[in-house]
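Lecture 7 notes: from sequence to structure.

We start with a single chain of 79 residues. Read the sequence below before looking at the structure.
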Amino acid sequence: MLPLGHMGITILVVKTVEKTISVPWVDYRVLLVASLLPDLIDKPIGYLLGVQPLLSGTYYGHSLWLMVILLMVAFIQWY
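Now the structure, written as tokens:
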């Protein structure tokens, strides 16, 4: 897990989006925790399943399905 890399890329993307569209506010604390969420999900699952997470480190948290589910939850709460 490279936490500074995850957080840095996330902040860079959000700052770029903020410049292009009008965003009312962004809670950077939540944003930084969310940027680490895939690794916080993957590492414990990898250890519980007995898979060596050091080989790839990407399991369920880095999947497209998790992103789709989280986006659906965000849209439901937004509207």
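The mean pLDDT is 78. Keep this in mind for problem set 3.
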